[in-house]
DnaJ-domain-containing protein (Piromyces finnis), 603 residues
Amino acid sequence: MDYYAILNVPKTATQDEIKNAYKKLCILYHPDKHSSDINKTVAQREFQKINKAYDILGNTKNKIIYDKYGEKGLDKTWDIGPLYKTPEQILSEFESQVKFKKEMELEHILKSRGEIKLTFDASGQVRQPMSPHYVAPNQPHIYPHYGKHPMPAHPPPPPKPVTRGLAELLHLPILQNTLIFHSWQNDITPKDSINFTGQAFSHQGMNIVSVIGTLSHTINSSLVTEVSTCLGSQPYIQGRVIKNFTSDCFITSTATMSTVDAPPNFTFVAGRQISPNYTGMISYNTGHYSLGQWGKKQKPGEASSVTLTLIRRKGKTNIQGSVTVGLMESHIRLSYAKSLTKHLRLKLHALLSSFSGGNFGVAFDRKVTKFSGVGFGLNCSSIAGFSVQLRYSRLGQTITLPIIISHDLTIHVLFWGSIIPLSAVYFFNQYVLIPYQKNDLKRKIDIIKTANSDILAQRKKEAEESIRLMSETIEKKINIEKQNDGLIIIEGLYGDAKLLKKMKKLTYQQNQPNKPLPDEIIDVTIPLQNMVNKSQLHLGSYSKSSLIGFYDPCFGKEKVLRVVYIFQGRIHLIEVGENTPLFAPLRDHIVNNTFELPKDITL
């Protein structure tokens, strides 16, 4: 139950507005206002709900907890001392205690993340091993057993071409390189955590294996330090300090030392939130350098560079652009990410480098279940060529399969390499993922409905009894609205959005008076009229099923509320979603003058 819906007040309501709403409801639902035993019982039940809602929303501390953590937060024991007076101080202390309790509960639980990345080459362009009899064009001819003597009249026949058998015919992918990554994180204390990362990379006989351990310590809310050690093929020691000067300004300093023969490499990053939607950063990497004789004998490694980055976040869109200027390489990078639907996310990236040329890619991430998802991407690179990427993730574990289609970027390759994979992904999404998600959702809804059938039935019974209780006093409200030429509800329907969209007629009762409503749509005309106050009807951004006199007739489905009402002699119509606010009357709700006003208004 939503306590804001019970009192019919918005979340921004003041204590005075909450108190006034509570008093108005008490006039109707106080048990002493009713004479019959049945009505007294119904009023007593609704009065208890109203009192509970007022006890929570009418108390500043309880309201803050409820807004932040819901009804479950009210079940916990909070130790808030007298020093915390303002809502900001109370909320800050609540968040601190919640964080501490969560850290203590998860103290012995390891958080793990991992990825297996297997890169395949399916281009069919295989480097053939050199034959001992092979002679490159325009090169001196030296044959075995003949030495530097003239070429014989009948030289040995050329060798047969090396073939991969069936793999040559079908272009079966060849495993090009492998990357395995896994990390474990554990919170030692509320301020200290340790992270272990292991990774292994293999490419054409070259193997790189490393284990990284990182210890993080939070000194205070604005200062964090980290120390990392890498053991393996490329060992190093790293230290990092993260300083937050304000909520929108930070600086990070990192020192990395991979050998005692050269001074450490430093990276400095400074960032600031320019506006609510924009964040800017500048980073400087010292690269390889020497101090006197220290570092001169070491081979030059990474070169120094400066990077400017601008990030824009607004709604479901994230855009990031950066420009890097360095001694060895300069590049421009752009990325774009947007959530197209609740389960689908689009990602684009482009890179133009002075060293590696250009790179462009597009990817789609699709959420399958609450804890798993799949991804598909296309990538064009001037070095690696054209490739597709498949990805599957679940509970922090990811399997990535980049497959190189061709090393040459031609129109033919780009066209077929894009059309065929995208078509396959489309059909897989339409005929496999979407049906699976629908069936899985239906199965879960059926399980919940079966397990809570008694509760749902009780909600329905309570709503019907509340409507019967309202019916005794609703005529008085309608007469007042009639005298003032005010707002009168002709019909209110609430339920399945798809079914309501099929009802094209203005009102169901007038066009089909003898036909009952579908089971997944309920008549809420009386509860809506009961909420009309001084010719105004306001519903907040909460679930309509929690309103007094309402219940959920189609659990798990999209619902809408349709209201047909008269105001100042004109018919109005409005439809709103489950959590969409409703304000009436408005001029935008006027239907038109072609509809005749009903002679009698029947509720």
Q: What stands out?
A: The two ends are 27 Å apart (CA to CA). DSSP finds eleven helices and 23 strands in the chain. The domain at 3-105 is CATH 1.10.287.110 (Helix Hairpins).
